[in-house]
Amino acid sequence: MRIISVGDRVRRGNYRVHSRFSRAVNYLRGEQLVSLVSEEAGRGPVNIVVGEGGLEAAGEELEVDEGGLRLDGSFYSLAGVEAYDSRWLPGTVDREGLRTNLAVLEDFLKENAPPESLVFLLEPGRGKVGDTSFRGRLEARFRSAAADIFRSEAALVAGCRRFKGLGSGLTPAGDDFVAGVLAGFGVLERMDGVDRTGLKGEIAAGARGENPLVNSFISLTVGGWFFERLNNCLDGLAGDDPAEVRWGAGELIAFGASSGSDLAVGLLLTLKNCRGGVFPV
Fold first, then answer.
1. What is the pLDDT of residues 135-164, one digit of tens each?
2. C-alpha distance from residue 67 to each of 35, 78, 268 (Å)
3. For residue 71, what are the β-bridge partners?
4. 109, 249 Cβ separation under 8 angstroms
5. Whole-model pTM?
């Protein structure tokens, strides 16, 4: 098995398999997550990226130590393997440049995000009034949770709690949205220097639950440790080239069936509504 990169939040210890997918095998040790992933899935803070055929070697147990990995008795050295730095370090973020880039991101999401994602939150009039189908009722719950969510800190914390666990899948859409909110505050901190640790902590505490994958994702995001596709999107937003904004957005929405798009919607709405300060005056 060829190991390509190891995330900077991969911790030593003994892990057991939690779930398997075509591009990832997730291992847990308590709340600590390590994911063995394909090159297509990409780099991340707790990702170990392996070459073609590597996931076939993923057994039930994984041991991580200082020198390498042990999968069901077979040892794989980490000597010379790239260490992925998950911190987003753009330097300064220009307020007006961000405003312009957010408009590019919004147009891109409306045109390209999958219809089953939360992109409908960007278009308040979209959807059928009184739709009683399962999807219609779910969309109504999302719209209700999003209503006036950026009115105040208290409203944001309460609204994020209402998003918790909404949707289906291993990481539901509501949880991905909350991760986008937290990532958005990380961008704002780079832009204005305002410390939002307390607010992010409140949101994260309300978002954690019984899903260990969601808990790990939220903890990493609130700590500022981002997966590569999210960093690419943020790089585009902090730059001055609309093509880079669209490319980074495309990278992000390719994450999961709709997870990247749901995260992008939370990110966009946070930056649109809060970039004038902690909350708009």
1. 788 898 999 999 889 999 999 999 999 999
2. 18, 6, 40
3. 62, 74
4. yes
5. 0.92
Burial class for 125, CB neighbours closer than 10 Å (0-12, 13-18, 19+) = exposed
Angle between helices 95-112 and 228-238 (to 10 degrees): 130
Local confidence band at 129 (pLDDT 50, 70, 90 cut-offs): low
What is the rounded CA–CA span in Å between residue 64 and residue 62?
A: 7
Q: Which two tokens stand for residue 12?
A: 């030593």
What confidence score (pLDDT) does residue 275 get? 64
Helix (H), strand (E), coil (C) string for 38-95: ECCCCCCCCEEEECCCHHHHCCCEEEECCCEEEECCEEEECCCCEEECCECCCCCCCH
Q: Would you list the DSSP string of 42-58?
A: ---TTEEEE-TTGGGG-
CA distance 83 to 66: 13
Strands 13-20 and 61-64: antiparallel
Phi/psi of residue 225, nearest 5 degrees: -100, 110
What pLDDT digit, counting tens, does each position of 196-242 carry?
Answer: 999 999 999 999 988 999 999 999 999 999 999 999 999 999 999 99
pLDDT band at 281 (very low <50, low <70, confident <90, very high): very low
Q: At 98, list the tokens.
A: 């961000």
**Neighbouring residues of 54: CB distance < 8 A, sequence distance ≥ 6:** 1, 2, 3, 36, 38
Which amino acid does the sequence have at 76? Answer: Y
Enumerate the domain spans of the chain.
3-84, 95-274
- In one letter, which amino acid is 254? A
| 43 touches 84 (CB < 8 A) | yes
